[in-house]
Amino acid sequence: KLTGHTERDIPFTKPDSLTRVFAITSGKGGVGKSSVTANLAAAMAKQGLKVGVVDADIYGFSIPRMLGVDDPAQQIDSMIIPPVAHDVKVMSIGMFVPDGTPVVWRGPMLHRALRQFLADVYWGDLDALLLDLPPGTGDVAISIAQLLPNAEIVVVTTPQVAAAEVAERAGSIATQTKQKVVGVIENMSYLQQEDGSKLELFGSGGGQQVSDRLSEMLEYKVPLLAQIPIDMSLREGSDGGNPVVLQGGEAAMQLEAVAAALTK
Ligand code: ADP
C-alpha cells in the first residue's frame, strides 16, 4: 500500500548525492518516450551502472510491461523494495493498483505518490535514476521540478513538425524550473528499406527543430542526441518486457550510444 509517507528526505537531492537524475519528457503521447526510457535504463545497466527507473507517468504507466516486471513491490516497515528487471530497479504505480484499475488522482495525490517513490524506496546507491514523465507540462512535471530540481531533462519527439512544436513546449518549462535540458532524441525517424534508402514515414526535421529552438530559448546548446529508426523489434521488445538494447540492431546501437553519452 502507498501510505503517503512524506517525512524522509529525497536522497537524490542531497549535496553529496552522486546520482545523475534524468527526466524523460515529450510533448505528446505515443512518440516513444517510455520505450526510450526503458531502453536507456537497460543500456546503462548493461554498461555496468547502477540504475533505477521511476515511472512518473502515473495515469499512463507502461514501464513495468516494457521492462518485464510482474512482481508487486514488497515492503519492509514503511520502506518499499523495488522489483528488479534487467538489472534495473523499477518503481511504478502499476505495482500498487490491481490490473485494469484506472488511476484517478488529483495533483496533491500525484505529488505524494511521486515523493514516496523517491524517498521511501530502497534505491541504494544509484549511478543514474531515470524518470518516465507523462507527456506535456502538467502536474507531474511541476512536482518533479520541485522534488528534483537537479533533474536533467531529455526531450523525445518524432520528426513531425506538429509533434516538434509541442515537444518544444515540454522542454521550455525548463526556462521556469531552471532544470537543465541535456538533449533531444528524435524517435521513429525513418524506416530502413531493403534497397538501402530510408523512408521518412513521419516527415523529417522535428528533432533538429526542437534542438535549435530550445538552444535559442535556453541560451545553451541542447544537442540532438540521436535519430532512432522505426524498428519492429523495438516495439516487440517493449511489448514483451525485453528491451531492444539487449537484442541489437540500429535502434539498439543508437540507444546505447545515447546512454553512454548521457552518463559519461
Ligand atoms: P510514449 O511513452 O511516448 O507514449 P511509447 O514508448 O509507449 O510512447 O511508444 C508507443 C508505441 O510505439 C509502443 O507500442 C512502442 O513499442 C512503439 N514504438 C516506440 N518507438 C518505436 C520505434 N522506434 N520503432 C517501432 N515502434 C516504436
TrEMBL record:
GO process terms (BP): iron-sulfur cluster assembly
Annotated keywords: ATP-binding, Hydrolase, Iron, Iron-sulfur, Metal-binding, Nucleotide-binding
> Binding residues for ATP, per the UniProt record?
27-34
Q: Which family does it belong to?
A: In the C-terminal section; belongs to the Mrp/NBP35 ATP-binding proteins family. Belongs to the Mrp/NBP35 ATP-binding proteins family.
Top-level taxon of the source organism: Bacteria
- Sample GO molecular function, one term: ATP-dependent FeS chaperone activity
Tell me what organism the protein belongs to.
Boudabousia marimammalium
Assembly behavior: Homodimer.
**Protein name per UniProt:** Iron-sulfur cluster carrier protein
Main function = Binds and transfers iron-sulfur (Fe-S) clusters to target apoproteins. Can hydrolyze ATP.
